[in-house]
Amino acid sequence: MSMQLEKATTWFNSIRSKSIGQILIDGRALFALIAIIIIFASLSPNYLTVDNLLIMSKHVAINALLAIGMLLVILKGGIDLSVGSIVALSGIVAGYLIRGVQIPGTDLVAYPPLWAVVIIALAVGSFVGYLNGILITKFRVAPFIATLGMLYVARGVALLIADGKTFPKLQGDPALGNTGFRVLGQDTFLGIAPGVWFMVVVAIFTSLLLTRTAFGRRLYAVGGNERAAGLAGVPVDRIKRLVYVFSGFTAALTGIILASELTAATPQTGETAELNAIAAVVIGGAALSGGRGNIRGTILGAFVIGFLADGLVIIGVSEFWKMVIKGSVIILAVAIDQAQQRTVTAKKKDKAAAESRKTSSSRGDKTKTNA
Amino acid sequence: MLKKSLAFLGAAVLALSLSACAPAAVEEEAATTGGLIAIITVDQANPFWQAEAETAKAEAEALGYTTTVADHKNDPTAQDQLIDTAIASGAVAIILDPAGADESIGAVQKATDAGIPVFLVNAEINVSGVAKSQIVSNNAQGAAIGAEEFAKAMGQSGEYVELFGNPTDNNAGVRSEGYKSVLSQYPDMKNVGKEVANWDRAQGKDKMDSLLQAHPKIKGVIAGNDEMALGAIAALKAAGRTDVVVGGFDGNGDSAAAVKDGSMAYTVLQPIVTLAKMAIAQAHSFLTTGATGVADEKQSVDCVLVNPDNVANYTFWAIG
Fold first, then answer.
1. pLDDT number for residue B23
2. A355 in a domain, yes or no?
3. Does the distance separating the beta carbons of B209 and A261 come in below 8 Å?
4. Closest C-alpha among B304, B297, B252 to residue B120
5. In chain A, which end has fewer C-beta atoms inside a 10 angstrom radius, N or C?
6. Which of A103, A127, A246, A269 is the best substitution to test chain B (most B C-beta atoms within 10 A)?
7. Minimal Cα–Cα distance from A2 to chain B, Å?
8. Using CB atoms and an 8 Å cut-off, which of residues 172-231 of chain A contact chain B?
C-alpha cells in the first residue's frame, strides 16, 4: 500500500518538475494569446489600449473564475455542467435578499445586511455543488448526468424564485442598511475591476492548494488513477465532493459579481457559461480524462477566449463568423495539444524502453560475473 | 460541521423560496366547464412573453376556461410537441406565439386538422386560412417611430451603434431594417457598429463595453429590445458616460423606470397585453358563435412611443 502511495507521489512529482512537453503545453496557450493580441492590435488601434485591456480583463475574469472551479473538477476526471445555472441561482438569491424577504405570517420585510446576502448566496452555490458531489459519490450517478440534471434544476429554481423576472436596482437603500453591493462588481481598485481582483486571489489560492497541499497531490492522484489512489488510502469520495463544492462556490462568486456589475439579477444569466469554462480549461492544456492541468494554463485559456471574443467585437466581425472562429480556435488548440501529448508519450516510452534494456543487460552482465 | 451548516442554510433558503411561490400554484385549480385553452408562448423567463402568457391566462380563466401555459423557446420541434400535447389533452382552443413564420405552419395545420382552432399572437405565419386569427404588433411601424425619436434625441447627427436581437428571430431583422430605413435618411448620422446581443441584458452590457472601446466617439445606442438597452446603460454607467442616447423596444417595466430617471431616452411599447386580450376574446367568440367576430384574419396593432413626455402614464405594458 505504501508503495502505491509512493508511486502516486513520484508520478505527481514528475508532473510538477516541468518536462519539456509541459512547457510546450503551457506555451501553446501563451503563444495563442500573443498571436491574438498582435492580430487584433494590427487591425484596430483601439484594441491594445489600457482602457480596453482593463475591460477585456473584466470579461475574462468572469470566465476564469468559473474555469478555475471547472479545472479542479476536470483534474479529478469529472465535469460540472451546472456552473452556468449556479451563476444565475446565486445572483438571483442575492437579488432576492437585497430586495427584501417577506417574513411568512407577518407584514414584516427583512433586509439582511450585505455580508449576510453574500454569505447566503455563496452558501447556496456551494450547496448545489455539494448536492452534485453527493449524487456522484453516494448515488454513483455519472458526473455528466448528475450535473446536467442540476443544470436544469438550479436554473429552474432561479426562475421560480424570480418568477421569471429580473430583480433590478440592487444598489440597496441607505435607510435599510443594505447598500454597498456595487463594491463587488463596479468599484475599481487601482483602476482594476473587482472581478479581476477576485480572479487573482482565487487563482493564487487554488494554485497553492494544488501545488503545496496534500489535497492537491491527492486530487491529481485521484484524477490520474482513481483506483490506485483509493488503494493508497486517498479518501476519493471526500476529494470528489470537495471539488464540486469548490466549483459551486466559484460559480456563486461569479454570479454575485455579475449581478453587481449589472446592478440587476436576471435568471437567464450564465446560459452556456459552463461550455466557455470547459473550453478555457482545455485550451489551458488540461486533459478531460483527469490528472493533468494547472491554474496557469487555465487562466491563459480564459484570456485566449476572452481576448478573442472581444477583439472580434472591436473589429466588427459578423456574429456568425464569430462562432465559427471561436469554435475553430478551441478545436485547433486541443488538436495541437493532442499532437504534443503523443510526441511526449512516445519519447517517454522510448526512454523507458531504453532504460529497461539497460537494466536487463546490466543484470545479465552481473549474472555472468557471478558465474 | 461547516458542511452541515452550509447544507442547512441552503435548504432553508430553498424552502423559503418555495413557500413564497406556493400561493401561485393554488390559483391554477379554478376548474370550470368552459374547456381547456392551451397557451403556448416563447419564454416566460422574459417579462414580455410572461406578460403575454399571464394576460391570456387571466382573461381565459375569467371567461370560465381552464388553461395550460408552456414555452417552446423558439424551437419548432418543441412547439410541435406542445401542439401534440394540446391535441391529446383535448384543448378547445390554442393560443400560440409561433416559433418562426414558415416553421410553424405544419404545427398550426395539425391542430386545425384535429378540429382545434388556433389563434396566433405576437408573430405570424406565412399562410392565411389555417389559423383563425393572426394578431401581431406592428414591429415595422414601432421601429420607425422609435428611430424617429432616436434621431431627434441625437440632434440628427453623430455616430451610433446598434444592438441586434437573436438573429434567428424574425422580429430582430424587422426592427433593424425599420431603424435603418429611417436613420439612413439622416446624412449626418452614422451607424459605426452592429452587434448581436441575443435580446439579453448581460450580453448587451458586454457588447457595449467593447463597442465603447472600439468607437469612443459614439453619441447613441439603438437596441432591438429593452433588455439589451438596459445592459448598454449598465456599461455606459460603468464607463462614466452620461452623454449617450439609449433607445429600447418592448416597453417593459424596467425600461419605463429608466425612461423616467433619464438613463433611457425612449422605448417603444408593444401592446402585448392588448394582443393577448384580443386573442382570448376572439377565441371565446369563435367557440360560442362559430366566428371570431373580426373581418380579417391578419390583424396588426400599432406600437406606442414611451418617452419622458408620457412615461408618467405608463402602467403594466400599456400607456394609460
1. 41
2. no
3. no
4. B297
5. C
6. A127
7. 30
8. 186
Residue of chain B whose Cα is closest to the Cα of A316:
B193
Cα gap B122→A227, rounded to integer Å: 58
Distance CA A345, CA A364 (A): 28
Interface test with B, best of A124, A237, A257, A272 (most B CBs within 10 A): A124
Q: Is B13 on the interface with A (CB under 8 A)?
A: yes
In a domain, B231, yes or no: yes
Instruction: Note whether B127 and B187 are same-domain residues.
Output: no
Tell me the β-bridge partners of B96: B40, B120
Across the interface, whether the CB atoms of B234 and A51 are under 8 A apart is answered: no
CB-CB neighbours of A303 under 10 Å: 25
Nearest CA in chain A to B7: A127
For residue B163, which residues of chain A lie inside 8 Å, CB to CB? none
Per the structure, how many domains does chain A have? 1
pLDDT digits (tens, 9 = 90+) for A56-70: 999 999 999 999 999
Q: Please tell me which residue, A149 or A186, carries the higher pLDDT value.
A: A149
Same domain, B122 and B143: no
How far is the C-alpha of B199 from the C-alpha of B249, rounded, in Å? 10
Q: Which chain A residues contact residue B16 at CB under 8 A?
A: 101
End position of a domain, from candidates B86, B103, B131: B131
Report if residue B4 sits inside a domain. Answer: no
What range defines the domain where residue B249 resides? 139-269
Residues B180, B113, single domain; the answer is no
Cβ atoms of A109 and A320 within 8 Å: the answer is no
What CATH number has the domain bearing residue B229? 3.40.50.2300
Q: Which residue of A has its CA nearest to B44?
A: A164
Full domain range(s) for residue A49? 14-346
What average pLDDT does this structure show over A223-231? 89
Band the pLDDT of A241: cuts 50, 70, 90.
Answer: very high
pLDDT recorded at residue A362: 53
Q: How far is CA B165 from the centre of its chain?
A: 11
Residue that finishes a domain, picked among B78, B105, B131:
B131
Mutate to test the interface with A, among B205, B206, B316 (most CBs of A within 10 A): B206
Nearest to B10 among A58, A124, A320 (CB): A124
In a domain, B89, yes or no: yes
Find residues 223-282 of chain B whose CB sits inside 8 Å of chain A.
Answer: 227, 230-231, 234, 238, 254, 257
Distance between the two ends of chain A, CA-based, in angstroms? 36
The predicted-structure confidence for A1-49, as pLDDT tens digits, reads as follows 455 555 555 555 555 555 555 555 556 788 888 989 999 999 988 899 9
In terms of domains, do B233 and B153 share one? Answer: yes
Eight-state DSSP code of residue A183: G
Give yes or no for A31 touching B (CB within 8 A): no
Q: Is residue B13 part of a domain?
A: no
3-state secondary structure of B209: helix
CATH number at residue A322: 1.10.3470
* Chain A residues whose beta carbon lies within 8 Å of the beta carbon of residue B46: 164, 268
Per run of 10 residues, the mean pLDDT along chain B (length 320 residues) is 49 46 39 78 86 93 93 88 89 92 88 94 90 92 96 95 89 93 95 93 94 94 96 94 94 92 94 93 92 88 93 83
Residue B226 and residue B176 in one domain: yes
> Is A237 among the domain residues?
yes
Residue A270 lies in a domain: yes
Q: B40: closest CA among B122, B136, B137, B113?
A: B122
Q: Check whether residue B262 and residue B166 sit in a common domain.
A: yes
Residues of B in contact with A260 (CB under 8 A): none
Is A279 in contact with A301 (CB distance < 8 Å)? Answer: yes
Mark whether B243 and B263 lie in a shared domain.
yes
Q: Is B44 on the interface with A (CB under 8 A)?
A: yes
Q: Higher model confidence: residue B247 or residue A111?
A: B247
Tell me, yes or no, whether B145 and B243 share the same domain.
yes
Q: Can you give the pLDDT at residue A13? A: 55
Number of domains chain B contains: 2
Distance separating alpha carbons of residues B281 and B275, to the nearest angstrom: 10
The candidate with the shortest Cα–Cα distance to B84, out of B119, B55, B113, is: B113
Query: Residues 310-369, chain A: which have Cβ within 8 Å of B?
Result: 310, 313-316, 319-320
List all residues 6 or more positions away from B138 whose beta carbon is below 8 Å from its beta carbon: B300, B301, B302, B303
